[in-house]
Amino acid sequence: MFGIPLPFLIAAGAVLAFIFMMSIVTACFRKVGPNQALIVYGFRGTRVVKGRGTVIVPLVEMAHELSLELMSFDVAPTR
């Protein structure tokens, strides 16, 4: 076909399929900082990811970020 050898077409198709699959995985990858937690729940159960990343499967799992920053507030006695 068009003078292109068949093994070259197969190799090019495999490379394109690999790039397509990696782009889907990177689109589903969620990463949180060292002072955050990612709460993931859904089909695989509930898990907490702290300071790293994980793959979230769309339509099967949901994820919410939670800040682990230290919060301070003043407690004043009322008179």
Number of domains: 1
Query: Can you tell me the residue ranges where pLDDT is under 50 for at least 5 consecutive residues?
Result: none
Helix content: 25-40%
> β content, as a range?
25-35%
Which secondary-structure class do the elements indicate?
alpha+beta
Number of strands: 5
CA radius of gyration is 23 Å
Main sheet overview:
3 strands, antiparallel
What is the terminal separation in angstroms?
90 Å
Round the mean pLDDT to the nearest integer and report it: 90
Strand arrangement, largest sheet? 3-2-5
Sketch the topology as an H/E string, one letter per element: HEEEEE
Number of helices: 1
Name the features.
single chain; 79 residues; alpha+beta; three-stranded antiparallel sheet; two-stranded antiparallel ribbon; 1 helix; 5 strands; 30% strand; rod-shaped
Annotate the secondary structure layout.
Elements: H1 6-28, E1 29-31, E2 36-42, E3 47-50, E4 53-55, E5 61-67
Antiparallel strand pairs: 1-4, 2-3, 2-5
What features would you describe in this structure?
The chain is α+β, with helices and mostly antiparallel strands. It has one domain. It has one helix spanning 6-28; strands at residues 29-31, 36-42, 47-50, 53-55, 61-67. It starts with 5 loop residues before the first helix and ends in a 12-residue tail after the last strand. The chain has one helix and five strands; from the N terminus they run αβββββ. The mean pLDDT is 90. The protein has a three-stranded antiparallel beta sheet with strand order 3-2-5, with no helix packed on it. It has a two-stranded antiparallel sheet with strand order 1-4.
